[in-house]
């Protein structure tokens, strides 16, 4: 993409030393130095100068200045975006006695991102030069101390006991500054007098976590396996009564192929293991200060009025700084706590023909308890939503992984295939307010949570056709009018035939129906690996089936195409020229069309809340192709190296899909695809590995 660039340097260091026979010290260190370029760089706009809604037509006059702006080559534009990161871990392990050791590990992640941006007057909304400065800093560290004891008896009994104590702290420190009215020569936030043209804010957030864990593992001659774990974690996000979560688990295994009665079939079934487990995992999704009511220093919200009748857009009151409930965001709840996911899993591992064929199969039932969601509350509270552990969800499914070595072990040419496939069914098991349906999102993009249905089920009007003539529109026998839109305009020829689900001859949100969801039924992939002497080739395919998406990309383009005022909009905007087949649109009475008529729009015919824009999001993708060559050791030894390998990688090579969006994989968690985000890029990578 013109005007977009990224330069990254990522050196790494691994260090290991044994000061004594009983002490081992290791350090892994990764440094990142990044500089990014963002085109016109305006953080107040989208990533591009245009969106799919309102995309300009070929009549749009783009001069030299606009071209330079949109491609990031305008001399007066300044965008200095640099990121420095340090990630690493250090481990020290001391052997107290044979089989007993103490290990301490500290990991750390430090990131500092600074960005200085100067927006010239030709680009700014104020008509003046503007400068902004950003500083984003994160500092996270985690310390774990483990005491590990292992004991094996001659009788075949093996034991392992682990005790763990851990702690974590994360600090965010973000600073934002902006100024309006900068001189052309001053491209940073400086030299502006105090007042409305100068603004600075700073945000600091901290969270911490404390953990304890005990683990017991037992096996007898590798045949019978037992593991029991108990873990408890405390999070500063939550109140003292809700802070701690307990997460036990237990697993059992039987390695049947190690039994004596299995010997006669070992040449065919080389390995067979049955296993089962039950446990509870935790997720800590709340905001850093989830238990507290958040305050803001601005008493401005729609229709806000102070006691004296004055508009509520105040930052000070009688010279004192205003602190006001943050009604823009969801109300807090002191009882919010951990999400808990009890899960049962049963499976087997199978090896055939001396493990030339291996199969792993799993069946699972996972209940996500107390998932954090924001639900609506009465407006009399001042808030529109509140956040708490409101939703329970169940996932059930099966997973298979099949690995085959397709040629004889003695062959110089080797071919290995790894195929995995998974089926998952998810549905909601509990909602607040007695299990009543929970609808969220703006009216044009509504989704509903319903007990017994998957997450994020689409709610839309069902559209089966386009009215060919006025006579095709149902008539209300009470009024003699054609079916109406929200009690107003009557539907006519060329309008979408939205189903009147409740039979009241009026189309409104009560006629919405459940129509697909973004959760896939089947996911999987296949990796084929080939090797011959020093050459290697890996080809990875991935696929998704049984999910839907909401095509905002198509809906937004239609918003420009269908208008009651084409003379005004079809000049500056692309309108029907936006790669549509005009023959698909209704144009005269009697037409059997795919899409509504382009002229007139009395019933919001391009509304995205229609089944027209729900598409099959299944796809097959060539995800990755990797080709490599390793030099023979007889050459590498001559130059003092133990290994030299050259490689090339192609990512996201090709995708096949029935959907019409730019990329069916680039869809958000709710299933919406707007076409205004970065596409999943095709990448070509070339490199080499040297081992000294």
From TrEMBL:
Keyword Membrane: yes
Compartment(s) where it occurs, according to its Swiss-Prot or TrEMBL record: Cell outer membrane
UniProt cross-references to SUPFAM superfamilies, sorted A to Z: Porins
Protein keywords: Cell outer membrane, Membrane
Main localization (coarse): membrane
InterPro entries: Beta-barrel_TonB_sf (IPR036942), TonB-dep_OMP_SusC/RagA (IPR023996)
An example Gene Ontology CC term for this record: cell outer membrane
Keyword Flavoprotein applies: no
Gene3D superfamilies xref list: TonB-dependent receptor, beta-barrel domain (2.40.170.20)
NCBIfam families: OMP_RagA_SusC
Protein name: SusC/RagA family TonB-linked outer membrane protein
Source organism of the structure: Pedobacter petrophilus
Lineage: Bacteria, Pseudomonadati, Bacteroidota, Sphingobacteriia, Sphingobacteriales
